[in-house]
Amino acid sequence: MDFSHDEEQQALREAVRGLVGKQYSDFELRRQTTKADPGYDETMWARLAEMGVLGLPFGEDDGGSGAGPAEVAIVAEELGRVIAPEPFLTAVVLAGGLVAAAGSPEQRAEVLGALTAGELVPALAHAEPGSRWSPSAESVTASADGDTWTLTGTKEPVPFGAHAGLLVVTAALPDGGTGAFLVQPDAAGLSREGYPLFDGSRAAKVVLDGTPGTPLGAPGLDLTDSIATVMDIGRIVACHEALGAMAYALEATSGYLKSRKQFGVTLNTFQALTFRSADMYVSLELARSVAAWALMVLMTGDRERASDAAARAALQVSRAARHIGQEAIQLHGGIGMTAEYAIGSYTARLTALDHLLGDGDHHLGRLAEVVGQHEDLDPLGA
Amino acid sequence: MKLELSAEDAAFREEMRDFFTTEVPQEIRDTVREGRELSKEQIVESQRVLNAAGLAVPNWPVEWGGQDWSALRRHIWHEELQRACVPIPLAFNASMIGPVIAHFGSEELKQRFLPQTANLDIWWSQGFSEPDAGSDLASLRTTAVRDGDDYVVNGQKTWTTLGQYGDWIFTLVRTDPEVKKQRGISMLLIDMTSPGLTVRPIELIDGGHEVNEVWFEDVRVPAENLVGEENIGWDIAKFLLGNERVGVAPVGATKRILAQAKGFAKEQRGSRGGTLLEDPLVASRFVELENELLALELTALRVVAHSADGKPHPASSVLKLKGTELQQAVSELVVDLAGPASLASGAGDDSALPGWARRSTPTYLNLRKASIYGGSNEVQRQIIARTILGL
Q1: Domains and CATH numbers, chain A
Q2: Do the chains contact at A297 and B284, CB–CB below 8 Å?
Q3: Which InterPro entries does this chain map to (chain A) (predicted)?
């Protein structure tokens, strides 16, 4: 049992922190970046590609570096610390992850090679109006005419969908189950309408009307399990991104309490405020423990345990993120409400992460259905 | 990063599991499992079984019966004890005064007390708190005045847990009233059969007798019973309380009780059909508590995996704070599961209601103490704010 990172992982953390930390420690720069499309800095994206960060989860045969979930989580945590707007989670972990899990060798090499090089930013179009984090697609349907597949229906919200160079679209298959399709941005019958989100990122409504798509992997194959797996990995990575954001939010709040004067004294003179910070620390440490554990369970390769661990981490982090995000604003007072000051944007980002792949109550419900099937939980699995 | 225990630590865990479940008398373990009160004899017997195998005082120096274990192994030992329903070795002996005598005591004090303390031949009581010195321990007023070869002690201690069984009491006393309040405190070991020493029971809200007041009226204590030097009592207290906080979160026991509670919930009819555990509101309470306990257990593992030189990790305050909150929350859940049967605390064993349900409310009421003792949870918040967050 070992919760620590090795030297190479430490070096990766420092490199990523050096790059994104330097740029986005100037919060005004992040604000300007998120004001204009595509919502992130394409030069920064190219630098992340140069650093090898965008190919971390993919095999060497697919153009990636064959690193593991731990490395991906380290990157996510560092991006979270500065709430970097780059679409690492949605483009690399989710869209890239599904291509890696289900694509043919040629599809993997082509898509993941270009993604790793920073030349292609794919988006996963999975969520549908009316759906709540299900791994299945329902209202977007696929039909086959010989070898030709077409898709019809609406996907929304599609994270970073308006400017994506490739859409990975999930759809209900004619014979049941859910498949995934690669859809080119200039495909017939495809329309995209992009908009900014409250956290500065971007999403789109994607309407497909008899739009041609290439089946990901073998045509007609039910990919529900692969989609569920990618969502579970995404949950664990999102937890680590949230950890970075929560850690910074607590540091910033503590710093503020020490410097801000009211009634002639600094705010940390008031026990009512310092106690609330202490409770934020408790929430953060408990969330960190479960997120790190979920990552290690994922690394064991046990699919079923990883899904359970992802739900548990997501539940704990959801509760912690709301607690820390809300308190961070409250303890900052009015300044925490302003767009110019960073802290409120951390709460916004945490709220977005909470709802991307399933919030606390969603996971609580899943876990409650099976709570009678075990006596207690043994984190070491013995 | 790696999840599994090493092969050696996994084998160690098996070894502990085997020993605790086969060597400690079943009747004692059943008493713990069912949440009944342990008798003095049971606590003593259990500790002697452990001590004979070198498992009663692993945190002591090796020459006095301790084990040269990693922090992780001490943690595994502690968790497995709780899992197997074995009473934890008496804290006053094993975690408090034993390590203090081993660290601060003269060779003569060590020889005289440590073997008997490990084997629970002496039952120690703690004499720290006073009516006006709880969390603000340095305000204590019990005095010890040197008179020839003796100290003469006068004053009052309170909240002396299980003092009715105590043979000896370790006390903090004021030996110099003239200096800053932390500087004039000493630690004395006092035979509880000494003339002038009186133990009076305090009845608590659960109806039980667990704590006591201890009065000292001109009690003569031989000067050789002073631990360390005169007036270094505050350093000793800090050392002792630092030890106390480690392992103060009873994760294993709380997990076990939550698992038992699940069994209770399966046996009850729910208000809306099905079993009580199938009630979504009940099921979600179980999940929330189970998840928080998982987080706490993993935090404890992080702390022990990274604690250097046996020093308490700064996050150990998190364990005390959250550990006691969860202990209390689980006891609250059990009362709610018992429903109307929770009222029947006074019913005897021929009651038609199950024992766990009859005991649920006194246990819940009793456990309100957990967030008060061992440095109240407000004190822990203060420690986190000051030493970790720098506020």
Answers
A1: 7-120 (1.10.540.10), 124-221 (2.40.110.10), 224-373 (1.20.140.10)
A2: no
A3: Acyl-CoA_Oxase/DH_mid-dom_sf, AcylCo_DH-like_C, AcylCo_DH/oxidase_C, AcylCoA_DH/ox_N, AcylCoA_DH/ox_N_sf, AcylCoA_DH/oxidase_NM_dom_sf
